[in-house]
Amino acid sequence: MRSKHLAAEKKASGSRYTALRSRRLPASALLDKRAVLAAIVLAAAIILMVLFSAGIGTMRIHPLDVLKVFAGQGQEVHKTVVFQFRLPRIALSLLVGASLAASGAIVQGMIRNPLASPDLVGITNGAAVAATSLIALTGGAASVRWLPLAAICGAAAAALLIYVLAWKRGVTPLRLVLVGIGLSSALSAITSVMVIASPLRIAGQALVWLTGSVYGAAWSGVLTLLPWTAAGLALAFVLARQVSAQQLGDDIAVGLGSRLQLQRLALLALSVALAGSAVALAGGIAFIGLMAPHMARRLVGPAFGAALPVAALCGGLLMLAADLAARTVFMPTEIPAGVFTAAIGAPFFIYLLRRRRSSP
Amino acid sequence: MTKLTASNLSLAYGRQLIIDNLDFAVPEGRITVLIGANGSGKSTLLRALARLMKPEAGAVLLDGKDIAHTSTKEVARKLAMLPQGPVAPEGITVLQLVKQGRYPYQSWLQQWSEADERAVRAALEATGMTPLAERPVDALSGGQRQRAWIAMTLAQGTATVLLDEPTTYLDLTHQIEILDLLYTLNEREGRTVVMVLHDMNLACRYAHHLVAVKDRGIYAQGAPGDIVNAELIRNVFELDAHIIPDPLYGTPLCIPASQARRAQERQAAVPVHA
Ligand SMILES: Nc1ncnc2c1ncn2[C@@H]1O[C@H](COP(=O)(O)OP(=O)(O)O)[C@@H](O)[C@H]1O
Ligand SMILES: [Mg+2]
C-alpha cells in the first residue's frame, strides 16, 4: 500500500483515531494514534537500551562510540566486541522477547484470561521435557546442536496433545486451560525426574536451559530465529481481527460470523510457532509472555491490532533489560536472564492475581 | 427483509431432548417475545435460531436456505444475536466494542470503510451511547453496558436481531429503557426483534407476537391480548393468576396468586382506574 493512495481523514470518530482509506483500492484501516505513540516511545527506548547495552561489559564502550561503530566508523576493537559478541546477544534478546510476548498476547486473547501465558498450552513444558531428555540421554556438547529442534518439536507435540485431549465437538477456552494445566504439571514432573536422575554436570546444563538465557548467542542463532519471529508477527497481525472477535466470547464471535474452531486452531499453532522457536533458542524464559501483553493492554487497551505490536515491543524491551542485568549485575559472573524475568514476573503475577480477586 | 423459520426442529444436549419437532416462523418486522418457565428451552431455541447450536434434526432456514449450510459471515449480515450476560474484555472502550459489530463486513484489507463508520455512528446514536463512546465498558452502569452491547448488535446492520434476556439484572427503570429502545428500533427501522423476557407483564406490553414455550414445543403463540389468560399462565408457569388489562396500555397484566397468603386475606376487587 503506497502512501499516496491513502487519504487520511481527521474527522474520524473520536480524537484517538484516524481513518485511513485508499481511493483506488478497497482498503481501509482505523489507526489508533495512542498505539502509534506508544510504539514510537517503546522503539525509542529500545534503541537507547541497545546503545547502552552494547557498551556495557568487561570492556566499557561509550554509547557515542557504539553509535560510531554502527555507522561503520570507530576503533577495530570496539567493532569486534560490539558486532561479534554483544550485538548477536542483543538481537536475539529482542527477537525472543518479541516472540514470547506476541505468543502470550495471542493465548491471552484466545483464552480470554489475562493470567494465561504460552506455558498454559504446554509450550514451555513440552519444550523442557524434550530438551532435558536430549541433554540427559546424549549428555553434554553433542546435544547442543540439536537442542533447538528438540525443543520446538517438544513444544508442538505438547500443544497438539492438549488440543486433542481438549477436543469435544470443538475446543473451548475452559477445557483448553484445564487440560493444559494438567498436562503441564505432568510434563514438568517428568522434567524434574530427568534433572534429578542426571549426573551433576549434566543436571547443571539442563537447569541453565530450563531457566533460559541468551548466553553465547551468535549471529547464526539470530538468523535462525529471525524468520520465525518475522513471519509469526506478520501472521499475528493478519489474524488480529480474529483475536479481537474471540475476546468477546465464543457465542458472540460466532454470531459475528467468525469461523471459531478453525481460527482457534490457527491461532494456537501460531502461538506455538512463536513461543516454541523462542524457547528453542533461549530456553525456558519465564513470564515475558505473561507480562508484556498485560503492559501493552494497560498502554493501549485490548483491541488486538493495537495491543500486538506494542506487546512485542514491550517483550523485546523486557528481555533486553533482563539480559543486561544477567550480564552485569554480578559481573564478571553471568546469571541466566531467565532468573531476572522470573524475579520481576513472579511478583507481577501475584499482583495480577490479587488485583483480579479484589475486582468483581 | 429476511425470513427466519424453524422446520421440524429438534434440539438436544447429549441425550436430553429440549425442543422436539418444532415448526415456527418468526414474524417479519415485528417484536416476538419468547416466554416460558426456567429451563423450558427458550435460550436453547434462540441459540439454534442464531446457529450457535446444531440441530439434532430439522433445520433453521434463513431466506429459505439452511442456516447450517450458509457461510457464517453471510448469516452474520442478516442476523445478529446478543446472548445472555455477555462479558466485555477488560478495558475495552464502547467504541471498540461497537466496532466489532462490523466484523462480517470487514476483511484484512478493508478494516474501516465509510459504511462501517456510518453504521457505528448510527448505532451509538440510536442507543444514546455517543457521549460515552470513549469510556471503558467495565466502568459503565449495568444499563449503559447493556446499551453498549445492543449498539454492537445494531452496528451489525442486520434486519433481524435476537436477544436473550436483555433486561436481566437491570433495575426497573433500565428494563423499561432497554425495551423502549428496542421498541423504537422496530418502529423506526423495521427491524425484526426476537427476544426472551422473564417479566410476563413487560413481555405482554412490548410483544406484537408472544410465544409460550412448554413441553419441548410451543404451547401457544399470537398477540398477547389474544392468547394470555389464566389458563395459559397456569399451564405454562404452573401458577394461579388473575389477568387484568394493563391500566396504561390495555395489554394483559398478570396478577399472580400467592400460596402463603390465604384466600380470605385477599381484598375485595379494587377498581383499577383509581
Ligand atoms: N450447555 C448445556 N448442557 C446441557 N444441558 C443444558 C445446557 N444448557 C441448557 N441445558 C438444559 O436445557 C434445558 C433448557 O435450558 P434453557 O434453554 O437455558 O432454558 P431457558 O432459557 O428456557 O431457561 C434446561 O433443562 C437446561 O438444564
Ligand atoms: Mg435462558
TrEMBL record, chain B:
Kindly report the protein's main subcellular placement as a broad class.
membrane
Q: How does it sit in the membrane?
A: Peripheral membrane protein
Cite the SMART domains for this sequence. AAA
Entry's localization field: Cell membrane
Give the matching InterPro entries: AAA+_ATPase (IPR003593), ABC_transporter-like_ATP-bd (IPR003439), ABC_transporter-like_CS (IPR017871), P-loop_NTPase (IPR027417), Siderophore_ABC-ATPase (IPR051535)
The superkingdom listed in its UniProt entry is Bacteria
Using the record's annotation, list all stretches that form the ABC transporter domain. Answer: 4-240
Alphabetized, the UniProt keywords read: ATP-binding, Cell membrane, Ion transport, Iron, Iron transport, Membrane, Nucleotide-binding, Transport
User: What SUPFAM superfamilies does the record tag this protein with?
Assistant: P-loop containing nucleoside triphosphate hydrolases (SSF52540)
Pfam families per record: ABC_tran
Task: List the protein's name.
Answer: ABC transporter
Q: Which organism is it from?
A: Gordoniibacillus kamchatkensis
